[in-house]
Write the structure tokens for this entry.
Amino acid sequence: MFLHTVDLGKQPARLFMNPEQRFQKDCETEMHRDTYGRPWSLGNHFFDFLLENHLEKHHKVLDFGCGAGRLGIHLIQHLDKGCYFGIESHGNSLRAFSEYEIPKLNLASKCPRLLFDKNFNFDHFETKFDFIIETSVTQHIYDDSMLLRAYQNISNVLSPKGKYLVSPRLRFSEKEMNNLGLKYERDYTSHFMEFEQTKYEAKTYWSSYTKHQF
């Protein structure tokens, strides 16, 4: 017989809150920042990596799997008004981004656009993107038909000179990606020195794709 136990020593009051109260309490304690596996500060590293790849203020950027804004808050601050777009399938993470992180940093004036979506409807924004950045989203999709749709939709909204940066590296072959309109460019390994000598992985492995011109 399976017995479910609850540790009442950890946020006991939270157990008896309704979902809305729990969400508000989690924002107050910034619990959403602790759900990524690696620390929130990794967003700084991802942002620096984009700068190294020639991100400019006027570029249109799609943050695929934007979560609670670990990378997004840095992008919104850096980019010109209306240039940041985020898409996320986890509702509370997106709410934490829009209702806590953006107001906290006074970023609403930059007019970021956020979409709650589970079906890779990147064309919702009616925009061609100079950069599409993804960290650990398609890695967790095991249905190849869903992966094909995701990559095809990425290809459809990537600008002719745009770049798709993804971590970790994809399991689809270079030929398969090429057939979907995404041309393999190169692999990168970035290092986050802050994580050296810690329990966290200090390296991030990336692949870069550009728009394939048939």
User: Anything to note?
Assistant: The domain at 42-211 is CATH 3.40.50.150 (Rossmann fold).
